């Protein structure tokens, strides 16, 4: 159906989006790459000349680099695991007949509307504070010593906060996918005496494969760059310094633009490795 | 997948689902409740659930301290403006990708998504310098542009997946009847894609509303949206749980209400092509 | 919004005070501390008197710092007045980024500003930011608990006394912690506190050749003492407690002692906020037995004008108003003397009414006891007590204090943290070219 005419029209229609995104990517990226080869210290007079690969070497050889890559991957991996597993379970539950389904769906979807800054502030102060937080009251009620969540269990706490924000998203997409499942197929399997577990494993889960891929892809894109949750809660202390946060510290706290820019370039490389990896899976899954 | 089940089974489902729903919603509920307490009641041990002296004092204090309406208005303009602009730019692109696919369509789509992975902090300096040069600092126009660019890949992708579900034959038929390209998009494609566009619109308003890095760093007094409003309540001196809760409630209420009212549209469209 | 400004302009005109007829507007970035929020409330008085409109950007401290630093280094010009501290002022002044405040009016009486504050906010003898309020740190303690423990707080106690008193006051059953101190990561939070503690144990950040000193025994002694003290008598989870967290603990009666900013005194003695308002005593920050330096810092939140602003004259007018004697009197008349911004002006401490305020005397003594040009026992090449006034410090100290906070949280040992701090600081200083 694609004639020569429509193909050139298509190209023209695609142009604004492509050009804008190209500009959005290339202009700052070029500037970042230029800065990364410079000794650029705003508090010491700004641009102090070219330094070759010094910033790149310094950034990776710093004792903070590998832990930050690890922290990034742990957070992304942890949140993905939690949201996918609980998302599937929740979708299964919400797909069942019940009274007040609409209201329950509203309750489940709500965290997605809360801005990350607010959710981090609320969790940090009103829930996880070791003295006045609700969890501390709860722990004391059961006679346990309150936990200082954000220091003693910093990583799980942050993963919990972020998962709470993204669980609704995963649940909704998985629920929509679930609803498109042919119920006759399930009933037939039930007649044949397939156990619930077998029905889930052989019919439901394969059907959800595509939706899970989409959830993983979209969330990874957002999770790689989470910032507010860490800035508000631990400020990168207690092993929660992600690569994004490390770059923030270099650029804004240390005011070392050159070093931070080199870090930015590394982060872009990491993001692209993850992206390439994801794209391979998704690309296959989306083709069908 | 509506199946008939026994009332007992339905009751169990209902209880389980409501329990889970309430647990997930509880942090928001608790924040809203806390916003009506006095500061002392907010940290009372044991925590007070419903039986306390309900007060609006915190809202009054927050309103007195900051001009909530201005922050709210900025949020609306920035979130709404960036989304609408994004959709205007994305519709033609998504159309051509869906109906005139080439070998490179998928690559372009995936490349667009990959631009979302650039760490914002890494390019703060360049963007700030560009904004100074163009006089866009602390302007709503500047933020509309930035947030549009940030969300454009998601918008294009969402629209692309909706458009792909529209059978090509219908368009063929319209073309046979002599519809121009413009008419084809305007009268045939758009009505069919309305649910998809609506949910794209909603999702991106939510994303733009909640974006807290650029909106905070590129604004001062004039264009600051609700994310900046909340940044002045994060840890003031003394007891602040009730005031923080009130400010939080004010910051999330508009989008929460919008989300709830339109959740059907949002849910219907929120598939990202995950459903075939 | 346009309606609002139109209304304001109309009001200004009808009062006949709008100088040239067009209302000038200045934008002020400030921190969300109580005194600044109060100033925001009173700025209507300023607008009425001068016709100059004021726009506020009120942000939490960390966000504010990030925001104003980005703006000043790129010359973004978003603000006409920035609220900055003693750390930024000399560095920015040196770079020529701030308008020198050397031509303030006669009535402003610049010589009335406390010498310690004036020196801390000057570079090469030129004042670059005017102090809105100033502070040192001191001990705030519960007189009732001290009595119960059978102890008597001297005016100038040692750390050894503090430790004994803290242990004696601690009653975990009743949720009373003998002492609450900052453990939160961040150079201005726990980093500031541990640095003053280190000073009082005879430690220092750098020697005269800018070599990091974390491998010296004094640091180990100071850090170990702090950790043991907090283990024995501190609140749970103190590794995330900063100024605000401790303030709220103290106000709820959960701390026997608290060593922190002198400005906290007005909050803990305010019966509307504090459950222990009438049971608070004050003393100088402690020293380690045999070390002459005490653990008190010096800080000021000050108002500075970024060079290149279009509203320099109006901004200066505002600064003169906000840091004037008249502003202090205005607050005193409306909120009582205990609530005026402290620590900036000599005349305040000579006011008879203010001398009756229970913490006034100890605040002044603490400020006078702090010497930023000579902060440590052994000589150092830097200025600043709880910070080192070099551009690299904020970045280094934040990461160092994160390592320390990990010790407080029980995630590593004192030795491990000091080793990492030494390595990291040396790395950064070398990168900066020292």
Automatic annotation (TrEMBL), chain A:
UniProt KW Membrane keyword: yes
Keywords associated with the record: Cell membrane, Membrane, Transmembrane, Transmembrane helix, Transport
Higher taxonomy: Bacteria, Pseudomonadati, Pseudomonadota, Alphaproteobacteria, Rhodobacterales
GO cellular component terms listed in the entry, alphabetical order: plasma membrane
Pfam families: BPD_transp_1 (PF00528)
Transmembrane segments: 12-37, 71-94, 106-123, 158-177, 211-237, 257-279
Main location: membrane
Keyword check for Transmembrane helix: yes
Organism: Tritonibacter scottomollicae (Epibacterium scottomollicae)
Protein family: Belongs to the binding-protein-dependent transport system permease family.
Protein name, as recorded: Sorbitol ABC transporter membrane protein /mannitol ABC transporter membrane protein
Cleaved signal peptide residues: none
Span of domain ABC transmembrane type-1: 69-278
Membrane protein topology class: Multi-pass membrane protein
Single Gene Ontology BP annotation: transmembrane transport
Subcellular location: Cell membrane
Coiled-coil intervals, chain numbering: none
From TrEMBL, chain B:
ABC transmembrane type-1 domain segment(s): 72-262
Example of a GO cellular component annotation carried by this entry: plasma membrane
Listed SUPFAM superfamilies: MetI-like
Coiled-coil intervals, chain numbering: none
Keyword Transmembrane in annotation: yes
Transmembrane residue ranges: 12-33, 71-96, 108-131, 143-163, 184-207, 240-261
Protein name: Carbohydrate ABC transporter permease
Organism classification: Bacteria, Pseudomonadati, Pseudomonadota, Alphaproteobacteria, Rhodobacterales
Automatic annotation (TrEMBL), chain C:
Keyword Transmembrane helix annotated: no
Keywords for this protein: Signal
Entries under InterPro entries matching the protein: Bact_solute-bd_prot1, SBP
Primary residence: periplasm
Record-linked CDD domains: PBP2_TMBP_like
One GO CC term on file: periplasmic space
Subcellular location field: Periplasm
Family to which this protein belongs: Belongs to the bacterial solute-binding protein 1 family.
Name this protein carries in UniProt: Sorbitol-binding protein /mannitol-binding protein
Source organism per UniProt: Tritonibacter scottomollicae
Lineage: Bacteria, Pseudomonadati, Pseudomonadota, Alphaproteobacteria, Rhodobacterales
